[in-house]
Design a protein that fits this description.
By secondary structure, this protein is mainly beta. It has 3 helices and 8 strands. The strands form 2 sheets. A 6-stranded mixed β-sheet has the order 2-3-4-5-7-6. Strands 1-8 form a two-stranded antiparallel ribbon. A hairpin with a 2-residue loop joins β6 and β7. The longest helix has 10 residues. The protein is elongated. It starts with 7 loop residues before the first strand and ends in a 19-residue tail after the last helix.
Length: 172
């Protein structure tokens, strides 16, 4: 069975109104994609789908952890993530993307696949630069051996300038 089939919702058979779907996003979900930074996660995704005559409104609520690599010490840790996203699907003549969160699909369409939306939303929750959180005392929880080595290797004082050699020239 194709793992991602559970993320295809046959909305044509649903009555007008609210419908709730729940998913647990884990390693198997991200393993189903050929690309992406995330490989390990444990995120609860709750979807409220509001079906109307000419539109579907999808409200995603996500909470859990994503396994990331610290940019400072290169150690892995579970990053807590939490967020809400809203997505609109309107019915029209042909497929087109009106906005980042508005999709137009043909009126004869019967299913929607939300797997790529969840994939994108979770990737957008990971900050560009990820570092271990600080503990209660305000100290870094990065690997102490790596932090010590980084401090030893860092330069202190003014960096060398390529113009410093010109100061040694004597024009008299």
């Amino acid at each position: 069975m194709d793992y991602l089939k559970q993320f295809v919702i046959p909305f044509v058979g649903l009555n007008a109104g609210n419908h709730r779907f729940s998913y647990v996003i884990d390693d198997k979900f991200f393993g189903s994609f050929d690309y992406g930074e995330i490989r390990e996660a444990n995120v609860q995704v709750d979807l409220d789908l509001n079906k109307m005559d000419r539109m579907l409104v999808l409200n995603f609520q996500m909470k859990g952890t994503i396994r990331v690599t610290c940019s400072r010490c290169l150690d892995e840790f579970d990053l807590p993530v939490e967020g809400m996203e809203e997505y609109f699907i309107r019915f029209g003549q042909a497929y087109s993307e009106e906005d980042d969160n508005v999709l137009i699909i043909p009126e004869n369409e019967t299913h929607i696949d939300i797997s790529s939306l969840i994939f994108d939303y979770l990737h957008l929750m990971v900050p560009y630069r990820v570092v271990h959180p600080e503990n209660e005392q305000g100290e870094s929880t990065c690997d102490p051996d790596i932090l010590k080595k980084l401090n030893e290797l860092s330069t202190h004082g003014e960096p060398d300038s390529p113009w410093d050699k010109l100061k040694e020239l004597n024009f008299e």
